[in-house]
Structure formats: C-alpha cells, structure tokens
Amino acid sequence: MESARDIGICEVLACDESFFTALLAADHDLLGAILADDFVIADVLSGQVARRDELLGAIRSGQLRFAEVTRHAGERSVRLRDSAAVVVGRTTMVMRYRDDQVTVHSRYTHVYTRENRRWRLMSAQGTPTTMAPRLGAGRLPLFCDTALARRIEQAEAQLIAEASHAARRRAGTAGFVIPVAGGVASFAEHGSPFNKVAGLGFGGVPGAAALEEIERAFAARGAPVQIELAHLADPAIGALLTERGYRLTSFENVLGLALQGERERVTPPGIEVRPSGEEEFGAWVDVMVEGGLHPDTQGVPQHEEFPREILASAERDGGAVAGIRRYVALRDGVIAGGASFRVADGIAQFTGAATAPAHRRRGIQTALLSARLADAAAADCDAAVMTTAPGSKSQQNAQRQGFDLLYTRAVLVKQP
3-class DSSP state for residue 111? Predict the structure, then answer.
C-alpha cells in the first residue's frame, strides 16, 4: 500500500509532466491551470524574470514555441513537505522565440505549492549546461579521412546493390548491378530510388569503356545516370564526368559519430521504442512511407520526389536487406515512427527514419536515434553514419546528438 508521501510525490511528478506537455502543445488553458497566480520564471537563456501573464501571453501569441522537450526521468528528484515540493531535473529543449530557434541543455528547479488539494507551479528556474551530458566532456569531432570515407562508401554501395537485388526479385524486372571503380551502378525498376551509381571513386578512376557500358545500360531502360560522388573521392573523376556531359543537380551530406562505450537511451514520456519484427513489417513500411511523403521543408529542397507506390516498394526492398534492424516508435501505444540501421565493416549505417506528421515534435526522432546508437555501440561499431539533405531538420537533429559533418556527396546526372 502506498504511503501518503509516495502518493504526494506521484502527484507532483504528474503535474511536472503536465507542465512540459502544455509547453509542447502550446496549450494555454492547461498551462494556466498549472501555474500559480503569483508564478515567476527565471529565463534559462537571459536570466530575466517573467510573470505568469507574460509567459501565457508569449505562448498564446505564438512568439514562444517549444518544438522538443526531452526529459531525463532518471535524473529527476522530488523534495516534499506538507504543502510544498521542489523538483530538480534535466531537460534538452528546442525552442523558438520570434524568429530565433535555439537548443538548450539545462538543469531546472520547479517549486510547487498545494492549493485547494491541487499542486500548482509557483516558480521555475533553468540553469544552462555547456554541453549535452550524453556527448561526454572532451568529446572530439569525428575526423573523416579517405580511409573512413572508403568504408562508408563501400557500405553504401553494398546496401544499394542488395536493395536492388531485392527489388528485382519482388518485381521480376530485368535490372542490373554493375561493379565500377569501387562502387556499383544499379537499376532496380523504373522510378526506384535505387537507380544510381554509388560508392564511386575509391577504387581508381573508371575508364571510358566502363562509363559507356553503364550509360548504355541506363539509356536502354530510358533512365538517366545519377552518380553520387563523395568529395573525398579521386578528384579526377569529377572532371571526367563533367567532360562526358554530367550536370550537377544537388548535394547530400554524410554525417558521422564516433561510438565509444555505452550509449544513453533517451525516451520521452509516452514514447516507446522497440525492435520491429516480421509480424509488423507492413505497419513499419506504412509509417516510413507516411513520414517520407511529408518531409520537413527546412533546408535545401530535395532533388527527388517519389510517389507513394514507389516509396512503399523501396521501403519494402530496403527493409528486407539482410542484416537490417528495424525499429518502431509508439506514442501512447500507437505506431508513430520507424527507423532502421545495418552493420557493415564496423560501420553502423543508419538507413532511414520517419515520423508520421500527426506525431511530430514529440521527441520521437530523438528516441529512435538514441535507441539505434545504443544498439550500434553494443554491436561494437566504431562509428555511426547517416545521409541527410543539406540544412534539413534531419541534419539538425543529428548534430544535436553529436554527429559531425564528414563530407558531402555531389549528385551528378546525365540524361539518356
């Protein structure tokens, strides 16, 4: 049987959670019910003191918005007296004030008072920390030399080749995978995102005959040749492709994180992340497609868009590659997001993540990322890597978790 003290602590923590929930949802009414009439807050960034009506006004007008609030429940403590309680905890918050967006790692102190048998927040103060604790003091950026870039590009070429084979088995199409200069040229089926040349440039400069074979193979299927060329590849390849009529159409960034020791799993309240098995493969594909069809618009516009049926086929084929580990994130028991990664030559290759639009800005991507990092570290990977569009929300989320920009791929296209 719970004691009165235990019940009181549970009530205070529930009120604390409701406060953060109200901030995330910009729920003015819920926030007003939680804040005491004489509430004051010491701003975590400026140290300025604001009163209840000032905070509520900023939330109501939209001047202040909270995109993410990650609470670290294991570091939260409560001190309880008859009609007062103090909560000390740690958060990572992404907030926007007017046109400025910042990410703040902080320790907070909340003071609650019990009024009419209900807990209300009387005072809040945040103290910024200089770095997210999970990154570790003294963490050095991951330096990418040509040897690491070769490992990453070889892993990418292997993934494209295996996904292309899976697509051709499923669709019964006559595509191809052609080795070329350390990479592969792949045609899976018409419109597939696996129709590309990947990993080129770490096995010498391709000869004219090899490029002509690839160009003829794509042209025979009415498809352009798309080459994704790392800027750490042999520089002679860029000049060669330009001479052959390839045009630069876009860029993509490759980010990486050195994995050392155990990784913390960050799971916001109401979110559950778990491995996803064959029994829910269809549900995993559905949420990946739903998220992919509604990408965030932050950053450079994506150079490719795929219809639902092509995207669904690609997720099935990529998700069926040997060694792929799939995950789902549930919010209040509903599948709200998905992700995957694979291990290749000690590299944890993060092969995609998506959140359904209705569940965004709730910390789901953070939870999926931390789960994969923890499992990658447990699998003795020395680095985790992912590919993002330049300046995208995905890149921003990754860099918040300590990922470094390793190199850029230029996307070069030649029409048939």
Answer: strand
Choose between 176 and 303: higher pLDDT: 176
Q: What is the pTM of this model?
A: 0.69
Assign domain 257-413 to its CATH superfamily. Gcn5-related N-acetyltransferase (GNAT) (3.40.630.30)
What percent helix, strand, coil does the chain show, rounded to 5? 35, 35, 30
- Between the CA atoms of 103, 107, 113 and 115, what dihedral angle is there, to the nearest 10 degrees? 30
Distance of CA 198 to the CA centre of its chain: 22
Q: Where are the domains of the chain?
A: 4-130, 257-413
Query: Which position has the token pair 């296209």?
Result: 413
63-92 burial code (b ≥16 CB/10 A, e <16) = ebbbbbbbbbeeebebebeeeebebebbbb
**Considering only CA atoms, which of 148, 195, 146, 169 is closest in space to residue 310?**
195
Flag whether pLDDT at 131 surpasses 50.
no
DSSP code at position 303: S
* CATH-assigned architecture of domain 4-130: Roll (3.10)
What b-and-e string marks burial along 304-337, b requiring 16 or more CB atoms within 10 Å of the CB?
eebeeebbbbbbbbbbbbeebbbbbbbbeeebbb
Which residues are 105's β-sheet partners? 92
Q: How far is residue 28 from each of residues 22, 31, 64, 95, 120, measured CA to CA in Å?
A: 7, 5, 12, 16, 15
Please provide residue 34's backbone torsions phi and psi, each rounded to the nearest 5 degrees: -85, -40
Q: 3 to each of 6, 10, 74, how far by Cα in Å?
A: 5, 11, 22
Please name which of 193, 205, 201 lies closest in space to residue 159, comparing C-alpha atoms. Answer: 193
Q: What is the pLDDT of residues 193-245, one digit of tens each?
A: 999 999 998 999 999 999 999 999 999 999 999 999 999 999 999 999 999 99
Q: Which residue in this structure is represented by tokens 């789960």?
A: 371
Q: Using only C-alpha atoms, what is the Rg of the chain?
A: 25
DSSP 362: S
109 alpha carbon, distance to own chain's centre: 29
Q: How many Cα atoms sit within 13 Å of 330 on the Cβ side?
A: 10
